[in-house]
Amino acid sequence: MTDAALELQKAVFGALAANAALASALGGRKLHDLAPARTAYPYVTFGPASTHDWSTDTEEGDEHFFTINVWSNAKGRSEALQLMGLIETALAALPAAITPYLLVNLRRESREIRFDEDLAAYHGLMRFRAVTEPV
Length: 135
What we know:
The chain contains three helices and six strands. By secondary structure, the protein is α+β, with helices and mostly antiparallel strands.
């Protein structure tokens, strides 16, 4: 059996990579687990993720928490906010079937933007919660 967390990550990555508006705003499909050195801004990275048992007495399931990071060195927060909106739009279109699992729900829990003085860039953090169960 495959791992639900892995299948969810593949589905999220696929939805983001397939979104033409996001790719255009990033200047390409700049989606990384860990960005290579000297990656040109803006770009997106996958942050921390955790999975917890969400099973009941009669049903199996997992609860997932994951973070998507947006990095921008544009003046002000507008580019980071735009990218975060495009990510939300792309994930809203994620299909319920992520074979062999069913995506019961996916929602953004929070988002924030910080200015990273060491990088002289805005860092947007988006935290999501998803629940999956085997089909």
